[in-house]
Specification:
Layout (H helix, E strand, L loop, with lengths): L2 E11 L2 E4 H5 L6 H8 L3 E4 L5 H15 L9 E5 L10 H9 L7 E5 L5 H12 L6 E7 L10 H4 L5 E9 L2 E12 L3 E2 L20 E2 L1 H23 L8 E4 L4 H10 L11 H4 L6 H11 L9 E7 L1 E9 L9
Parallel strand pairs: 4-5, 4-6, 11-12
Antiparallel strand pairs: 1-7, 1-8, 2-3, 6-7, 8-13, 9-10, 12-13
Helix pairs in contact: 3-4, 7-8
This protein binds oxa(dethia)-CoA (UT7).
Length: about 325
């Protein structure tokens, strides 16, 4: 069982805030539909920064919040599916921006779609015996793969980055991570690996989503994953200070809360402001909750997520009731 401390938090918004009313002008949608079906009111789109730049700015804040210097970082894990390049990794680009080039660093990207930050935190928690200070970042410019003519997807997503610094510490981590090996309901083909001049205008890099299927899947597996980590830890919902769920849709989160007979106030929600930022979503929500004073670095929290793959899971980071902000 690994034990960690969360040392610092960071959050970087993308530059352009887009309201539902802005999207009404682009596609056949309405503020009323978007708010009722998703809870989303705004999202941020990055016009001036790439994925590594957003991640770097969030990382800088997390390092400062941890009272560390960039040089103290020993490993960098970036959860993303919209990195700057196919190679080198976004983690290496963030390392470059942080100016850490004269010591041993372990840096790589991890793609688990919207479960990315939760997967990355799980991996990092398994590495704390080997590396003193691990930077775990979720950074995404999901607008790179969004078709802004498709109302089924363009109203849902946004860009941004969140980061934490972790080390070996006193908080036990209980985890459950899983994947179904599915490419039917959520896929972006990205750049093909073969050249095919017949399909040069192919738009299959745009995200395709069977929304209803993902909706039902999400509710089922979020509950399952939360129950798994509760069971493993021996805690009940009453013992948990805050649940930080993947911010895809307010209705998904409220269905899970209802099924688990838990008050919505136990679930942190900022999807109304950020939309779905994929791998960055839980990282942003965690930092947002901390910056708003809803949790401390010692709160007992559960992260829970799901995404393309279909990946899903939950992580319970133990804390102490006495440390909760009332
Ligand atoms: O991070 C992981 C990835 N994604 C998700 O987690 C998303 C999971 N799914 C969802 O959140 C929901 O399924 C959606 C928000 C995507 C859709 O909500 P829904 O309540 O499942 O709506 P629906 O797909 O059943 O669509 C209802 C109607 C359809 O019209 P018809 O066929 O009934 O005439 C859609 O064409 O709403 C229509 N619609 C829209 N109308 C206005 C779909 N998108 C829009 C839109 N504005 N933006």
């Amino acid at each position: 069982m690994s034990k960690i401390d969360i040392l610092g938090f960071g959050l970087q918004k993308a530059n352009k805030k887009i309201s539902n009313f802005d999207l009404e002008k682009k596609v056949d949608t309405s503020d009323e539909w978007i708010v009722q079906r998703t809870g989303i009111q705004t999202r941020y789109i990055s016009e001036d920064k790439n994925t590594s730049e957003l991640g770097y700015l969030a990382a800088k804040q997390a390092i400062a919040d941890a009272a560390l210097q960039p040089h103290d970082i020993d490993a960098i894990i970036v959860a993303t599916m919209t990195g700057d390049y196919i190679t080198p990794s976004t983690a290496c680009m963030i390392q470059k921006k942080l100016g850490i080039n004269d010591k041993q660093i372990f840096a790589f990207d991890l793609n688990a779609a919207c479960s990315g930050f939760m997967y990355a935190l799980f991996v990092a928690s398994e590495l704390v015996d080997k590396f003193d200070h691990i930077l775990v970042i979720g950074s995404e410019i999901i607008s790179k793969i969004i078709d802004f003519n498709d109302r089924n997807t363009c109203v849902l997503f946004g860009d941004g980055a969140g980061a934490v610094v972790i080390s070996k510490g006193k908080h036990e981590v209980y985890s459950y991570v899983n994947s179904e090996g599915n490419d039917d309901v959520l896929i972006s083909h990205g750049l093909g690996l073969t050249t095919d001049y017949e399909h040069v205008n192919d738009q299959s890099h745009y995200l395709y989503m069977a929304g209803n299927d993902v909706f039902r899947f999400a509710i089922k597996v979020m509950q399952q994953a939360i129950e798994k980590v509760l069971e493993e830890s021996g805690y009940t919902m009453d013992d948990i200070d805050m649940i930080i769920p993947h911010q895809a849709n307010y209705r998904i989160i409220s269905h899970v809360a209802k099924k688990m007979k838990t008050d919505m106030s136990k679930f942190f929600v900022d999807v109304n402001e950020f939309g779905n930022t994929s791998a960055a979503s839980v990282a942003i929500a965690y930092s947002d909750a901390y910056q708003k004073g809803v949790i401390t670095k010692d709160s007992r929290v559960i992260f829970v997520g799901f995404g393309a793959g279909l990946t899903y899971g939950a992580l319970l980071v133990d804390g102490g009731k006495e440390n909760v902000v009332e």
